[in-house]
Amino acid sequence: MPRSVRFRKMEGGVTAAGGFSAAGVACGIKTRKNTRDLALLLSDRPCSVAGVFTTIKAPAASVLWNRAVVGSGAARAVVVNSGNANACTGKRGEQDTAAMAIAAAGELGLDPGQVCVASTGVIGHPLPMDKVVAGVIEAAERLSPEDAAGAAFVDATMTTDTVRKTMAVRTVIGRRLVTVGGCVKGAGMISPQVATMLCFLTTDAAISPATLRRALKAAADASFNCITVDGDMSTNDTVLVLANGAAGNRRITRSGPAFEQFARALEFVCVHLAKRVVRDGEGATKFVEVRVRGARTDRDARTVARGIANSPLVKCAIHGGDPNWGRIVCRAAGCGAAFDPAKTRLRIGGVLAYARGVPAHTPLSQLQKVMQRQDVDLDIDLGLGKGRATMWTCDLSREYVTINADYHT
Amino acid sequence: MPRSVRFRKMEGGVTAAGGFSAAGVACGIKTRKNTRDLALLLSDRPCSVAGVFTTIKAPAASVLWNRAVVGSGAARAVVVNSGNANACTGKRGEQDTAAMAIAAAGELGLDPGQVCVASTGVIGHPLPMDKVVAGVIEAAERLSPEDAAGAAFVDATMTTDTVRKTMAVRTVIGRRLVTVGGCVKGAGMISPQVATMLCFLTTDAAISPATLRRALKAAADASFNCITVDGDMSTNDTVLVLANGAAGNRRITRSGPAFEQFARALEFVCVHLAKRVVRDGEGATKFVEVRVRGARTDRDARTVARGIANSPLVKCAIHGGDPNWGRIVCRAAGCGAAFDPAKTRLRIGGVLAYARGVPAHTPLSQLQKVMQRQDVDLDIDLGLGKGRATMWTCDLSREYVTINADYHT
């Protein structure tokens, strides 16, 4: 994507695009009282739908359900609960997911096959369906296109997230104003293997399901597949996009300027949301960009970038603001990709730390300064080819351990 | 190895076997005053030598040197420094390693090619060679076969280790009493890819270099290659064994009862030392055994065992004593090996937590009890085949982060 493309950023998330309304309510799944845990999204007309999901071999019931909905290419609504992932729950879990869709469809006057379902929270416990159904009824009553309703929606999807992560942009496609917006939840169990966490995107663009799928796949590869907090993939990872055509543009059905413009807007929103996930990573105090260049292949570059981004030793050094570049080079050398120390260069925050097998003649104080920034930039050139990859991650703090050791099943 | 084989455990480490003497002195490489940082080991006669080393693509100068010594099959001495890994130090690092061997050879009246070298500590700084040479001279004067000298040796190899890890056993081979002993250092940057950390083994058995190599390879596969603290492989990982024949047994040169007995003793010592490394893992408060059975292949079993053992989420849950079995199943499902939730069973401390796609009907209190033990036992049966693997690891604590965030380069 050329860097010069600009979009008009807007307030709001899932309700920024025309024709979408949302709600978020507290129905008692989460133990803390009056905490929102049930979210509902509705389009006032039929939508093209596309999704990318966890590649894990034990996906949650909701992922199986959504694959079927997305397969049909059409949807109207999304119902989400937090506080319980409805994963590793067997047949009963599948029945409960279907019941969530049926309850929402009943309230909204839709066919259950038009309703996507997502769940997040603790694994291995059955959903309290009486609470879920009561929540769906209340949420359906509160649906609204206002920004505040979009905010309530995202709040009701959050677990260990500490900030609300939404984004929307506006652009012109075929002389029509088109909006792409969305929200994301996720802070732990974030790994780069596929669309991580729950992300809901809406647009009023008119676009066919197949074309929407292509745009989403490209956007997810450039965003959610480039982030990692702890290298763990979830059972529930879901990215959904609903396109309802309310903008009135000529329906996008193939490649061309209109598709390019839409795909860029979607990628822009996805990259923004993906980076927000890392910044809100469990216990994170810093944002880290790992850029690998000069790898023998793109695949090698990705292996090295992911290896560095997932190294507890590297992440702890970044947390401590310690320019321990030896750990970074060591991880690059140890992760299986082609590597030659004599050809490798490492820059931290633009400052040369290591080149051609030996430390650079950079004063330690200068390296300390760039390592102590809140945004740390690691650029490693392997000097072997044209392979490139970028990963975004966060540091590893005592707070991460506290969150994950004290979390209760 | 049949479980019935027993060895007589002994006091001492590298000096337990006949004909070996050792020393450990403080020469000022480590910044803290009077902390031992230079170790020397000598056999009073020629030894067969074997070694296994890091597979990293940027090995330290000492690893390159030792590969050459081990290639010759014969050695007499080992010189080790801690406080500086002499890694990522280019040509100068190689010259410094050679100079260490030359200095030790000069003091001991040997050829430099008979001296193994090992270094551990910070990466990317040149060795202070004046201090190293002074240390070698002092250590050569202090060489002694006493247990205390063996203890001083291991102390001088330690970095973030909190306990001295030594082991020795005695057994009878060909009607001669044979001793196998050794020590290990290592607490962080421990990964299972190959012989991790520094381990020095000595034996008075008479055995040919090729046969010794075979025994060491098998012992390392069953021990050091089964442990992980943080999934990071080091630039300096080294396991060396010196066999000087002082026991007077008929030289072991091929398979047979004598070889089997020796190999078992060596494996017994290696497994003991490997587990000690994990127990002394950086910040570790718990010891974890991960056993995977029923995998489609041994390789799949190893992937799953390693995936679980390296998962920050699983390790934090164990730290907190929280029976969050969902994280364990999730990691097993997400690491790329063949997996079917409906065929999987997970036992924690012998108690069934998950079977056939759903939580077991085990009271939470019972699972909490086994998860809160100091030694946590995870047994996962994938129900797909005969593949097996075991990994040993530790929990992930706030202390781990403190150690690695505050460590200074």
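Chain B has two domains: 8-279, 287-406.
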